[in-house]
């Protein structure tokens, strides 16, 4: 069986593979994650994932490289990772009682066969109406650190969410079911 390489330092993505029983090696990408504002959010997420996958594919041999990039979008505006607590507070206030989208672009590369696939998954997330006390209590968990959208749905951030429409694991950062479908279709490999 091929080696699987995760081109991401995200502990959440590695944990998803661990949950399904896949031992995956992590090789971090060293790309500069700059975005072009003239592209659609889906294009940005897929482009960043592809750049990560290409970068890592040049560092390893005979492997399937899996890379991903997750962005949060509200009304066509990308909401990045918060710079600080004040920024996280503003983000959570803007998401309160609203719908936003979580888009994860992913790239799969078999660097032995030179097969490359790039795709994305979109999940709609509906936040509850949050009051100031709830937002402040959530900020005290520090889960917002290093999280696009300033929350972690797999932790206490789940208490902020009313419902989702789409893949839960996509919101965590890796649409594992769609990735498995792509691996089966294009690489003749199943994670099951």
Question: Would you kindly provide a written description of the structure presented here, covering whatever features stand out?
Answer:
The structure is a single chain. This protein starts with a strand and ends in a 5-residue tail after the last helix. It has one domain: Maf protein (Alpha-Beta Complex), CATH 3.90.950.10. The mean pLDDT is 93. The chain is elongated and about 55 Å long. The chain is an alpha/beta fold. Strands 1, 2, 3, 4, 5, 6 and 7 form a seven-stranded mixed β-sheet that branches. Helices cover 32% and strands 27% of the residues. The longest helix has 17 residues, at 41-57. The chain contains six helices and seven strands. Strand 3 and strand 4 form a beta hairpin.
Quick summary of this structure?
The protein is built from six helices and seven strands. The protein has 192 residues and is an alpha/beta fold. It has one domain (3-187): Maf protein (Alpha-Beta Complex).
Judged by helices, strands and strand pairing, the structural class is alpha/beta
* Count of separate structural domains: 1
CA(first)-CA(last) distance: 13 Å
Order of helices and strands: EHEHEEHEEHEHH
* Major sheet attributes: 7 strands, mixed
CATH topology: Maf protein
CATH class: Alpha Beta
Count of alpha and pi helical runs: 6
The helix content, as a percent range, equals: 25-40%
* Residue fraction in strands: 25-35%
Model regions low in confidence, pLDDT < 50 over at least 5 residues: none
Write the CATH architecture name. Answer: Alpha-Beta Complex
Q: Label the overall shape.
A: elongated
The whole-angstrom Rg is: 17 Å
Mean pLDDT: 93
EC number: 3.6.1.9
Subcellular location: Cytoplasm
Enzyme class: hydrolase
Family: Belongs to the Maf family. YhdE subfamily.
């Amino acid at each position: 069986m091929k080696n699987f390489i995760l081109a991401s330092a995200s502990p959440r993505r590695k944990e998803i593979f661990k949950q399904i029983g896949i031992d995956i090696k992590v090789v971090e990408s060293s790309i500069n994650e700059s975005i072009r504002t003239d592209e659609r959010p889906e294009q940005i997420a897929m482009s960043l994932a592809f750049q990560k996958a290409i970068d890592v594919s040049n560092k390893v041999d005979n492997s399937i490289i899996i890379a991903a990039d997750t962005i949060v979008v509200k009304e066509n505006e990308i909401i990045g990772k918060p710079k600080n607590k004040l920024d996280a507070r503003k983000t959570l206030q803007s998401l309160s009682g609203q719908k936003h989208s979580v888009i994860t672009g992913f790239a799969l590369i078999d660097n032995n066969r030179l097969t490359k696939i790039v795709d994305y998954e979109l999940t709609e997330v509906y936040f509850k109406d949050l009051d100031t006390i709830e937002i402040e209590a959530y900020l005290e968990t520090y889960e917002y650190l290093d999280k696009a959208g300033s929350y972690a749905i797999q932790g206490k951030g789940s208490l902020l969410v009313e419902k989702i429409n789409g893949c839960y694991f996509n919101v965590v950062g890796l649409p594992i079911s769609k990735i498995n479908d792509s691996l089966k279709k294009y690489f003749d490999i199943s994670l099951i």
